[in-house]
Amino acid sequence: MIARTAAPRSLLPALTSARILAVPAVMALILAGADHDSAYTWAAVVFAVAASTDFVDGYLARRWAVTTKLGSFLDTTADKLLVSGALIALVDVDRASAWIAAIIVGRELLILGLRGVVAADGTVFPPSIWGKLKTNVQFIAIFLAIVHWGDDLGPLRIDEWAMLAAAAITVVSAVEYVARFSSALSEGVN
What we know:
Blueprint: H1 2-32, H2 37-63, H3 69-92, H4 98-120, H5 129-147, E1 152-153, E2 156-157, H6 158-180, H7 182-189
Antiparallel strand pairs: 1-2
Helix pairs in contact: 1-2, 1-3, 2-3, 2-5, 3-4, 3-5, 4-6, 5-6
């Protein structure tokens, strides 16, 4: 029984920390891919493993009923760092559009700030279905941009279509969060 209660306390932060620690590795491998194609393969593997820790972390936290405000904040921050870091590197190697990266990173910063305002009031900022969908579509789009498989599907490659979908869902998610917590924003202005 002691081992079971100790496991969630140490495993969940370790998974979040692994995602954060993967950010510079993913970025370095993507950037190295311009000179060594195998680096893209390793970047895709490290990114996929890091992204999967988000699912595992969330699943175990719900299963073990071990959720904290700090854990929730660190988990979403780790996702934002992983997505933002990978996108910045992908823009540098011309595998992602700068304007799509700006939309996604801008949304992440906006929601991070909104989370801070809402948390200051002691309000819980639960993820919405749009936020969860956004994260998953971003992870898929980034993975596809790293591996850069296949030919064009009409005017774009499959990873470019996925990035457009990620940008669209990212905007919808931002609008939904801002609308849901607009009262917290208006109270901060007064």
